[in-house]
């Protein structure tokens, strides 16, 4: 990344700082909030400067930064009777990918269809399930590139074009139709390096991973269903999904390209208070295109489990613990089908993952220190996410943190990202 | 019809106030009456609220939200829905509470940017409510059974109650004194003391209005005497007995707040 981009980022990020300090003691509600409620469009947004230097040289990527950008987000909201229209769009100058970029994150209409039915129609963010940064039944698109490179947590979820119908009764039902498949914003090699089993080492773009598109409206539809209810403080839910893998996990040898194979899943979860904290248990069965596990170019079925517990042992300190298991089905068949040289890259039959979250809030929540740890005893790898967030006021927030990857074998999920380990700094001015 | 109802309410409130100004002598009875007057007015309630948080160095922050409340039982369990509208970084956040007296509350938080419904551990109720000097407990009430109460003085206008915690390890105060208005039974001033009697935290009700027949503290100030900071909370557009349906206190309202019931009349 060129130094000019960084200077520009810091200069633009610094501008609101000056104005915020200048007016921090003023009475700046802007309009009269006690007057009658707003009608018409209301606009909000933020300007953010962010920079994330790599903490080591990455031989595969010719860039010392995973992130360097100045971002503007504009959000608009308007009531139309019982319906709310929402627009949220980002535009940013990107120092890593060199140029201007844009992203329409939300453009939807939400409201009451009938007294018992809500609808949200259009581009939206959808989340469900009980995990903390671990997803089993939530097969809505994620943006791991943003997550690993130092952008805010808000960017972990990627938008999807969908119709979401919610029916409320003795059992509540959410039904989501995505007319065309929306994959994760996965690592392509553009910003972050990854491990390639074909090459037997860590690689990056060029060439970029460019899988076959799944964007035929109608033909490439995805469906997601959730049934849920809370009984005496215990939240029960059942889930189903029929669509495509969010990662380009399959390979077509004839066309020499990756693609998104079919994926269906069934699952359930329960979440309840326990011993002063919150306990959750979730399971999901992933059924793909390789029923017998003998095709090495397709992912095998998986049965996933997750147990978690979050509590507040001391004032202002929250601790969260999770254990998750990915149990690969027909593992022997997969190993037999792989050529000798590729076997060690295959997933373990049982992948164990432990996570821990420690959050401390001080100075009446203006200062938040947190550390999120992913550790896999079976993959022998780790991912640390330390972070400090300080709210200078209602408009200005600063965040500093790091994404630290490492482990034993170059090809496991977290270790492959080792050369992308970075420290990030973000300054956000909200308006 | 509406006028008749209003008149009935006024008369009932008048009767209640008349009864209240008769002298009470039992500390626990007074505290429970004050608890009901502060947190249980009407069967349900709606109010817009604005907080101004002033730090010791003079810097200011603000919070604005609408509060919906429904009583499951008078003096007992309650349901709350808090919908934030300001500042920009917490706009759209919704907080839902099922308050259980004598047991842990169930609490949920909705974060709109991630479409995430987070369930929050019961935890310590004596921590800052959304970054203000008020505690979660100051907003939703402290269980009257958690302290021992003594009536230490009765003046012409006030009952003065001293309360000491039954479980002193769980709280920072050694005791607190509450001045309760004999007429309205509203706690007008609460001072939290350390072991040596030093007052380090003070809540004062600075404005009272009678709304729908219920005396209501419409402005309150919480001072942190250690840091010199304070928070002023103002309530406007308050209404009681609006007939909130139970079903709006649900997950549905986190993602899609019940606008019909949030609208100011």
TrEMBL record, chain A:
Alphabetized UniProt keyword annotations: Signal
Keyword presence, Signal: yes
Signal sequence bounds: 1-20
Source taxon at top rank: Bacteria
Presence of the UniProt keyword Signal in the record: yes
Protein's recorded name: Uncharacterized protein
Gene source species: Spiribacter vilamensis
Automatic annotation (TrEMBL), chain B:
Keywords carried by this UniProt record: Lipoprotein, Signal
InterPro entries named in the record: TP_0789-like
Uncharacterized protein TP-0789 domain location: 76-255
Signal peptide: 1-22
Pfam families documented for this protein: LolA_like
Keyword Zinc: no
The keyword Iron-sulfur appears for this protein: no
Official protein name in the record: Outer membrane lipoprotein-sorting protein
Protein's organism: Spiribacter vilamensis
Taxonomic path: Bacteria, Pseudomonadati, Pseudomonadota, Gammaproteobacteria, Chromatiales
